[in-house]
Amino acid sequence: MKKINILSKTVYNRIAAGEVIDRPYSAVKELVENSLDAGATQIEIYIERGGKQLVKVIDNGCGIEREDMSAAFMPHATSKILNAEDLDKITTLGFRGEALASIAAIARVDLVSVTEGNIAYKTSCADGVMSEIEPAALEKGTVISVHNLFYNTPVRAKFLKNDKKEESDITNIVSRYILGNPSVSFKYFVDGRLELQSDGGGLDEAMARVYGAKTVPQCFKINAEKDGIKIQGFIGNQNFFKPNRTYQSLFLNGRYIVNSTISTAITNAYASYMMKRQYPFYVLNIKVPLDMVDVNVHPNKADVRFVDNRVVFSAVYSVVSSVLDGTASAAQFVVDSIRLPEIKSTIDGDKNKVYKNDEKQTRIPLQSADPISFSFGESSFKPEKDTDTVKEYRDPLLDEENQTTILPLPKQSRHTMRVTNDTLSPANFNGDNRVSLAYEMRKQEQQKIIYESCKFKGNLFNTYLIYEMCDTVYLIDQHAAHERLIYDRLREKIANRKVDTQGLLIPYLLDVNPQEAEFIKSNERLIRNLGFGISEFGINSFRIDDIPVDLQNINLKDFFDDLLSDLKGLKEIKLEDILKDKIATTACKHAIKGGMQLAKEEVDALFKMMEGDVGLKCPHGRPICVTLDKKDIEKMFKRIV
Hints:
This protein is of the alpha+beta class. The strands form six sheets. Strands 1, 2, 3, 4, 5, 6, 7, 8 and 9 form a nine-stranded mixed sheet that branches. Strands 10-11-16-13-14 form a five-stranded mixed sheet. A hairpin with a 2-residue loop joins strand 20 and strand 21 (about 470-475).
């Protein structure tokens, strides 16, 4: 009995289709590339339900002859190459002849096309079976409509994202084609709504359409040639960075790619200018001789292979670093050699004024009359020095993965518990988690002191508050304590959905790209629960009208940059978990600083708000309080041994 089967055309076409068309954006990509290869100067793209229900591309290209229509849906049928030698000099975006055949194997496709001087014809294909070719009405170019993508492959359809996510990825790829083909006019419609449009007026216009008019002045426009490699486009200046890599567009000989050699060269050139978790902005079209690159190395042609990576790396790094460093050779690389001014991150206004970095430090003052209120009349304070800046934070106590559920001990435990400091120790119970928890609870209770019994004795370095009770001295870090209180209060308000908000005199406008916009829209409710009044304000733009009262001096740009700094991570875990980090960082920035001299009433208010809990830690894990016994101090001075 034979064991090797010869697969039918229907089966192997569906297998092949899965490599080329894995998501709706793949279908859009292949169809747009066919339009560009046909010489189109005007392209319209329509999608419905994230491309699952409909993907339609209309162009004014050269069209398809009637005699070629029957072959257009056949695998490996292409007008781009003829023999094996042509693979060494590919100048078109498509060349394998797989796209239309793959799409037709997993969707219902309608094709209408006309060539110059002829009448238009139409046909359709479903399950690999073509209909008759008939006359149609069309003035110029081609119209391809893809209906019900993956309708006959239910397993693949189950792996599709929701409509908004698929739409976001399509919008992202359309944006790349607008940037990579600035002389082509694009119109992109989503569920009947015009989402993106470019007029084919050049790269400056395309940049403004995709990223907004404010982006272009913050970039260098370059036109350079180094070692036979041409580099054209825009790179962000020394002060213009983005929170993630989605603002990086790279085209090689007109083809959109993601290539580690080139991206590493650019990142290294920016290394001395970037801070942690910042990424360069660039839109670059790099042209290399055809014999230096192989584009036939990836199923969807997303990456390429260079004959010599070192030559490409060196050329790109040399040009970008010369422009950023302002060397003598930069003048020949930059289209407009006038140095751009440093980007300012301030917003005019009063209470909603935003400051770059820490040029002005503010804090939320205290009021002793209300232990859960952080308002303190009209008082304001300025730090002498910011000695406690936290750039990164991981909360080991509150991270969900490390949370421990406190379980009651059963009546018949395998251990006899004696609640004393010596015996109630995890080490004495062979790692019994329940006993460890009981020990920690006991320890926390013992770390609380009675507020009224403590005497304030002064401070050290305007940073550490000194309290005395019986034979014990307590040194309290004023910054860490206030930081933890702000953090706990805001977390409690968010949990109870009772965050007090304050309106901005001048709304803050947040411009993002399609991927970031999709994330914000899908999590808008949670962001609102934080106390931010956020709403859509045009395409890929949001308006912030309200902020939490506790964070009234927040730098909104830094906050949202931090929130969007890892889109992949943001999509994989809950927003509430991510915001713990953001709130902790914000609490740190707005707490009273080490080095600030506090009035006596402020000291009392801070200590009272702690409710005697000296065992607290700041959100970053540092202790709030350190204790010294009289016996320990006397040992230091050799009064006792």
